Amino acid sequence: YRNNSGSSSVIAVNGATVTISGFTIDSTARRALRAYNGANVTLDDVDIDGLTYSTSGSALNCIDSGSLTITGSTLSNNTATSQGGAVYSNTCDVTISTSTFDSNSAPTGGQIYVRDGDLSITSSTVEDGTSTSYGAGIYHEATSTSSSLDLTLDTVTFTSNASGNHGGAVHADDILTIDIDDCTFTSNTSTARAGALFLNQSGGRSPRATLAIDGSTFSGNSAGTNGGALYIERADTTIDDCGFDDDDATTSDGGAIYFVSGEEDLVVSNSTFTGHDAVEGGALFLDADASYTTS
After folding, report:
1. CA–CA gap between residue 50 and residue 154 (Å, rounded)
2. Interatomic CA distance for residues 170 and 68, integer angstroms
3. Above 90 in pLDDT, residue 52?
4. pLDDT greater than 80 at residue 40
5. Do residues 151 and 178 lie in contact, with contact meaning Cβ atoms separated by under 8 Å?
C-alpha cells in the first residue's frame, strides 16, 4: 500500500473482527490502520515503515474498547506528533508477539502507547525508540487509581531507547500488576528518572500494585536523575535471578534501583549488582518507609 488517500487512515475497521496478514505499508502521511467502535483486529506478518501522522498512533490506532493483536510484524521509522509513534491504544487491549519495533518516535510513548487497556508483549524487540517526554519504548497508563490493568513482558529485548523525561524503555502509571520475565534492557537512557523502567503508583490506591521481575538483565542503562535502571514508586516488588551491570545515575541516587515506598516491600533474591555509579546508593537507594529483604 503506497500513496493512498483518506482523511486519517489507509485501512479503517469499524466494529468488526478481522485478520489482516502479509502486507506492507510505507511512505504515507496517514495512519496505516484505525480501529474503533469495539473492533477486534489481528495483524500478522505486517511491515509498516516510515509513516508520519499529525496526532496519535502514526502506524496503528485502536480506540473504543476493542483489541489489537500483532504477530510476526515489523514497525519501524514511524512518527507521531503526540502519542504512540507506532501504536496508540485507548481502552483497547494490546497483545504483541514475535515482532520488532525499531526507531519509532513520539513525544510520549515513542514506540507504543497504551491507555486504559492491558498490554502483553512476548518474544519481541523494542529498540532505538525516542520520546521528548515519557516512555521512549512503552508508555502504559491507567487513568483510574482503582484500575486492574496488567502489563506483561516476556522475553522482550529493549535496546537504546531514549526518553526526554522518565522511563527510557518503559514508563508505567497506576498499572495494578506488572510481570517481567526473561527480558533484557541494554543501553536505554532517560534525562530524568529510570533509564530502563519507571513505575509510579498513586498514593493510597487499593489494592496495592505489584511488580515481579524474574530472570532479566539490566546493563548500561542510565538516568539523568534517580534510578539508573529502575525507579519504583509505591509497588510491592520482587526481583529474582536478575543481573544488574553498569547502570548509572551519575548526578543523583540509585545507580541500579531507586525504590520509594509508603508501606510497600522490596524483596531481592539470587541477583547480582556490579559496576554501578550514583551520588548515593551505588546499587540501591531506599526512600521513605521501605522494607527491604535480600537473599
Report:
1. 27
2. 19
3. no
4. yes
5. yes
The predicted model gives 248-266 an average pLDDT of 92
DSSP letter at 127?
E
Contacts of residue 163, defined as CB under 8 A and 6 or more positions apart, other chains included, come to 110, 130, 131, 133, 134, 135, 136, 171, 189, 190, 191, 192
The whole-angstrom separation of Cα 139 and Cα 115 is 8
The sign of the torsion formed by the CA atoms of 94, 36, 174, 132 equals: positive
Cα separations (Å) of 169 from 12, 17, 160? 30, 31, 8
**What would the pLDDT profile of 70-103 be if each residue is shown by its tens digit?**
999 999 999 999 999 999 999 999 999 999 999 9
Q: How confident is the model at residue 3 (pLDDT cuts 50, 70, 90)?
A: low
Q: Is the pLDDT confidence value at 120 over 90?
A: yes
Count other Cβ atoms within 10 Å, centred on residue 270: 12
182/155 Cα distance (integer angstroms): 5
**111 has which bridge partners?**
none
Contact yes or no for 253/282 (Cβ under 8 A): no
196 in Cβ contact with 188 (< 8 Å): yes
DSSP string, 206-274: SSPEEEEEES-EEES-EESSS-SSEEEESEEEEEES-EEES-EEEEEE-SSEEEEESS-EEEEES-EEE
For the cut 70, the answer to whether the pLDDT of residue 4 exceeds it is no
Q: What is the mean pLDDT of residues 265-276?
A: 96
φ and ψ at residue 222, rounded to 5 degrees: -145, 145
